[in-house]
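Hi U.,

Before I forget, here's the chain from the pilot set. I'm dumping it here mostly so it's searchable later in email.
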Amino acid sequence: MADIREIKSRMKSVSDTEKITKAMYMISSSKMRRARAELERTRPHFDALNTEIKRIFRSKTKIDSPYMYPADGSHDIPGAYAYIVVTSDKGLAGYYNHAVINEFEEVRDREHESRYFMVGDYGCKYCDVRGIPYEGEFKYSADNPSMRVTRNMAEHILTEYDEGRISKIFLIYTDLENGISQKAKTVRLLPFHRKDFTDEKDIPDVSFDFYPSPETVLKNIVRSYVAEYLYSALVDSFCCEQSARMNAMDEADRNAAQLMNELRLEYNHARQSKITREITEISAGARALKKKRSR
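Structure:
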């Protein structure tokens, strides 16, 4: 059985760890609430951009734009594909990063030229350890996403697209599906496909005139659309990270409470054994003294 002093030291260590996990749980909860509130403030503008793109596609049957798939419907566009991979800056987030990395590895198995744009230190370190090349100039933090930083990210990737160095843009992130469950997924940002915006029935089939042309209007909208889509994905991923960390810290709290109960029981047994041993020693000494006196 362990020494009482050793058990007390372990109990103090578990208690200190429990305080840290509780604090991390509260911090993650606060960060998630703030991020979701900020996202809700930007959502109306994103919805308006989405509506305008739908209106363009419904008004014009033929649009010649580099942001759309070729008119022949071909999906095999030559050139490198860009993948923006969103991980966290820190660990202690349960399965969150592993799910994104698994999705990333599935993409890497596909046979086409690819360029990787990592968001978050975890993804960068993963690539460094395994010797996976990624874009070193595109290095952004995943913590507390902001619209200002996201616009810089979008401008960087769209410049690569406009200059023909990449032909498709994909985003690998974690989607907070129903506010509870989360799933790592890959979505295409560019080029657009008409069916991505014409399945909905919320816009009447009314013809509009676009000045100077639908292509120019679409080009101006796309930059804001991509930036806000990317921002939405970053906030979703950030919320998923905080939710995963809250779950991990909650599980750690339960494990700490269970371990603390076991240590208390072990401490009580050790203390009782020590008391019993001391009483036994005192009794034996008293008997020995009594025998000595009787002689």
